[in-house]
Amino acid sequence: MMKIKAAVLRELNNELSVEELNLDGPKENEVLVKIDAFGICHSDYHVVTGLAQQELPVVLGHEGAGTVIEVGQGVRDLDVGQSVLLNWFPYCQKCHACIAGNTNHCKTYMGMLGQGKMLDGTTRLTDSKGNSVFQLSGLACWSSHVVVPDIICTKMPKETPPEVAALIGCAVTTGVGAVLNQASVHKGSSVLVYGAGGVGLSIIMGAVSAGADQIIAVDRSVEKEEMAFSLGATHFIQADKDTLQNVKDLTDGLGVDYAFDAVGSPEIAEMLLPSLRERGMGILVGVPPTGSKIQIDATDLFRQEKIMTGTIYGSADTAVDFERFAQMYLSGELPIDRLISKKYSIDQINEACQAMLEGQIARGVVTFP
Ligand SMILES: [Zn+2]
Ligand SMILES: [Zn+2]
User: Fold this and answer.
1) How many A from CA of 95 to the centre of ligand 2?
2) Backbone CA torsion sign across 330, 334, 338, 342
3) Model confidence over 176-185: pLDDT tens digits?
């Protein structure tokens, strides 16, 4: 057992408390990882507000990277000192989805990890009073150290900075994967992105690498304009009631080839098809509220042959894509480091969450010097 420092959610809609917790060592097929960096993703905040259900108290965090410092029995592929990215969507390589290469649809581990427990149904964390603390996604990387199943660790090329590896674990794979895997954005096309946070900016990066000519970013917050341009957007629209008209004005009245909703709002989802030209594709990327319904104009699908779809975790085969995106960063094709507006210490976790909510930053990252 060791003492660690972690950000604990004890009460919904409340600040996180940074606490010293006890962490049990790795059991069979588990490893102990020292966290080097983690990102602040909006999905973590859905747990704080109760939009995503999770038993409390819980350590949040699903976008992280670190270094293996101890391996449990039966671990074959990982050694002490290995840099790893933590995958919140591990896959079994045996089920129908995995064999088809759609590891983002593997359901084998979802049950237990989704409840915030390890695969044996327990957690490795206790607080100072000896009470169990849940681990979001079985991962809980808003912490100095984690014990995780070895299957969630993906080796990273050694030169990859940990904060870049962390972002590949969620925002980058979600956004870049949406562009390259699900939409297959074509060279010379026009792309529209609603929401210029970590995921939206990753969509912009992906669209640049796919060779899109026109990339329009839409956000409520004018602070995002500069970030969007720095990642390759060609136009910025500050969202208001005239947004659709502004999109039309920028595209000779036609609309774009691809429109992405990186926010996960039903109102934006309903704007995707009207933003598109004929045969265009609208893609839901942000997490929509469970059970939400949207209305679409049937003639958009029939006469205009538009396509409406979505993507979970960038439709990525993470067995391949994590490494691919890390290599694209190292070769300069994906400037992932530009997503990181600010670095924090774990003691500043509430400040980092607040900055994300206020839309001041692209991605905030906590690092451990
Ligand atoms: Zn995330
Ligand atoms: Zn599977």
Assistant:
1) 4
2) negative
3) 999 999 999 9
Could you tell me the distance, in angstroms and rounded to a whole number, from the CA of residue 63 to the centre of ligand 1?
6
Helix, strand or coil, per DSSP, at residue 192: strand
Any idea how long the chain is? 369
- pLDDT classification of 113: cutoffs 50, 70, 90: confident
Q: At 132, is the secondary structure helix, strand, or coil?
A: strand
Place of tokens 């098809």: 273
Is-cis flag, bond preceding 90, omega within 30?
no
CA distance 366 to 369: 10
Place of tokens 């976008």: 63
In angstroms, what is the span from residue 85 Cα to ligand 2's centroid?
19
Angle between helix 349-357 and helix 42-49 axes, rounded to 10 deg: 100
CB atoms within 10 A of CB 115: 17
pTM of structure: 0.95
Domains in the chain (CATH in brackets) are: 2-171+316-367 (3.90.180.10), 175-312 (3.40.50.720)
**125-126 vs 83-86, strand pairing mode:** unpaired
Residue pair 259/248 in contact by the 8 Å Cβ criterion? no
Instruction: List phi, psi (to 5°) of 61.
Output: 110, 120
Cα(310) to ligand 2 centroid in Å equals 20
Q: How far away, in angstroms, is 72 Cα from ligand 1 center? A: 27
Q: How do residues 19-63 score in pLDDT, each as one tens digit? A: 999 999 999 999 999 999 999 998 898 899 988 889 999 999 999
- Surrounding ion ligand 1 within 5 Å at CB are 41, 43, 170
For residue 42, the CA-to-ligand 1 centroid distance in Å is 6
**Ligand minimally distant from the alpha carbon of residue 95:** 2
- For residue 287, the CA-to-ligand 1 centroid distance in Å is 10
- Residue 102 CA to ligand 2 center (angstroms) comes to 8
